[in-house]
Design brief:
Layout lengths: L11 H13 L2 H10 L9 E5 L4 H12 L3 E5 L8 H9 L3 E3 L6 H11 L6 E4 L3 H9 L9 E4 L2 H12 L6 E4 L4 H24 L7 E5 L3 H12 L3 E5 L3 H9 L3 E2 L2 H7 L2 E4 L9 H4 L6 E5 L9 H7 E8 L2 E6 L4 E5 L5 H4 L6 H21 L6 E3 L3 H14 L9 H8 L6
Parallel strand pairs: 1-2, 1-4, 2-3, 4-5, 5-6, 6-15, 7-8, 7-10, 8-9, 10-11, 11-14
Antiparallel strand pairs: 12-13, 13-14
Helix pairs in contact: 1-3, 1-4, 2-3, 2-15, 3-15, 8-9, 8-15, 15-16
The structure holds nicotinamide-adenine-dinucleotide.
């Protein structure tokens, strides 16, 4: 019997319907599943994964298994697990340790359970598994071929570990694949964050002033979707180049201390802590709504909000109302955690098709080359990015041009000018 812990195994049938539905929208990953299912290249590998338990993740997990791997899984956020999907995975003999509403202690307990299989490969979103492994389970390190990291914050974290000389095995930065951050972070976060904001708050975006903190890949997607819904968009930044880009893309740019007075809805996507603090909240309009799309719940300083409030009440799922001492009301979405995963279902399957094709390719690549590599952070191979994009285009019925031989030669020539 497979070891697992989920909220309610009787939800498995409903979860299975969701997974089947996601499969239909993930043609690249399904193509890779079919391509490798006979050969089973991951046959001798055990994989521990820590990534939001959504229907799309289940398609990835079941693909890894179809390729022969033994898999143990947990979520990478205490509030993002879809309990129906977790039940379906458990019912399909996956060692899954995940339920929605984990305490911090339970969260790390789940990570520890996934490491009991003594993995050859790890798959992370936010690097909590990588960090826990280094911190508490160093005995497992000699066994490892490598690991992969899904998100910007996790890649920053493992690069910092590498710089400090404490990273002990090779990690592939899947987030940095073009077919990941240029699509998942932009279109995935852009759409699903508004899905979460709307499901939780039901506010009208048209006519509102929406403040987006951070004009990175996620921030760009968020600003684009906010404008599309009819908002007046303000961007806050610390990087002058990105601030300039936001301005030339047509958004207003100003410091948070000024934006705080104007915004009706605030969304943070920086990966940085204390982007919105009590100093900003005290300037905000009555009824302002605060949400976060960055990886950790540190971008909006919730303890500041609590300290300024006389009462806190839950209006509905993922929407809390804080009454401040001066009588104003401030709304917090999803307890300041990833609003797209807590209040909605995360990114649409079509975009996770790209991200998870990247994860699958990373696992295959590390299983072949991992033992030859020094500890460090590795770029996603360019040719795999190109192949994934081409495959996605094919599944969308889109063809593109190819260089002729003369054009290939021209690209390499330097003598030819005007
Ligand atoms: N919600 C999701 O599903 C999802 C998906 C992908 C990434 N993420 C997370 O979202 C965050 C952003 O990811 P990204 O790929 O856009 O990163 P990025 O590095 O491309 O962009 C972050 C931007 O925030 C800016 N910034 C930093 N501190 C700031 C501050 N105090 N005020 C204003 N701007 C500030 C940086 O200058 C940068 O331009 C990360 O935590 C990432 O892990 C979430």
């Amino acid at each position: 019997m497979t070891d697992y812990k989920v909220k309610d195994i009787s939800l498995a049938e409903e979860g299975r319907r969701l997974i089947d539905y996601a499969e239909k929208h993930m043609p690249v990953l399904m193509h890779l599943r079919k391509k490798y299912s006979k050969e089973k290249p991951l046959r001798d590998f055990r994989i521990s994964g820590c990534l939001h338990v959504t229907k799309e993740t289940a398609v990835l997990v079941e693909t890894l298994r179809e390729l022969g791997a033994q898999v143990a899984w947990c979520g990478c956020n205490p509030l993002s697990t879809n309990d129906r999907v977790a039940a379906a995975l458990a019912a399909n003999d996956v060692s899954v340790f995940a339920w929605n509403g984990l305490t911090t202690e339970e969260y790390y307990w789940c990570i520890d359970q996934t490491l009991k299989i003594e993995p050859h490969l790890t798959l992370d979103d936010g690097a909590d598994l990588i960090f826990t492994l280094h911190n508490k389970h160093q005995n497992l390190i000699p066994n490892l071929y490598g690991g992969s990291e899904e998100t910007t914050t996790g890649v920053i974290r493992v690069r910092a570990m590498a710089e400090d000389g404490v990273l002990k095995y090779p990690i592939m930065a899947v987030n940095d694949a073009d077919t990941k951050h240029m699509f998942d972070n932009v279109y995935g976060t852009g759409q699903s964050t508004f899905d979460g904001v709307l499901r939780a708050s039901e506010i009208l975006i048209a006519g509102k002033t929406v403040v987006i903190a951070g004009y990175g890949y996620c921030g760009r997607g968020l600003a684009m979707r906010a404008r599309g819904l009819g908002a007046d968009v303000i961007v806050t930044e610390v990087d002058p180049v990105r601030a300039l880009q936001a301005r030339m893309d047509g958004y207003r740019v100003m410091p948070m201390r000024d934006a705080a007075r104007e915004g009706d809805l605030f969304i943070t996507a920086t990966g940085m802590k204390d982007v919105i603090t009590g100093e900003h909240i005290k300037l905000m309009k009555d009824g302002a709504v605060l949400g976060n799309a960055g990886h950790y719940n540190v971008e909006i300083n919730e303890p500041d909000l609590v300290a300024m409030s006389v009462s806190r009440k839950r209006v509905r799922h993922a929407l809390e109302e804080f009454t401040l001492k001066d009588g104003r009301t401030i709304y917090l979405l999803a307890e300041g955690r990833l609003v797209n995963l807590v209040a909605a279902s995360g990114h649409p399957s079509e975009v996770m098709d790209l991200s998870f094709a990247g994860q699958l390719n990373a696992m295959l690549w590390l299983s072949r080359h991992g033992k030859e590599l020094e500890p460090g952070v590795y770029d996603f191979p360019h040719e795999l990015d190109q192949q994934t994009a081409l495959m996605k285009l094919h599944t969308m019925g889109i063809e593109i041009d190819e260089w002729t031989e003369e054009q290939e030669a021209y690209a390499r020539a330097y003598a030819e000018g005007t």
